[in-house]
Amino acid sequence: MKATITVLPGDGIGPEVTAAALRVLAAVAARAGHEFIFREHAIGGIAIDTTGEPLPAATLAACLDADAVLLGAVGGPKWSDPSAKVRPEQGLLKLRAELGVFANLRPVKVHPKLAGLSPLKSERLAGVDVLFVRELTGGAYFGAKTRTADTATDETKYTAAEIERVVRRAFDLARGRRRRVTSVDKANVLETSRLWRETCQRVARDYPDVELEHQLVDSMAMLLLTRPAGYDVVVTENLFGDILTDEAAALAGSLGLLPSASLGAGRVGLYEPIHGSAPDIAGRGVANPLGTILSAALLLRHSLGLAAEADALERAVDAVIETGVLTADLGGRATTRDVADAVLAALAHQP
Question: Is the pTM of this model over 0.90?
Answer without folding.
Answer: yes
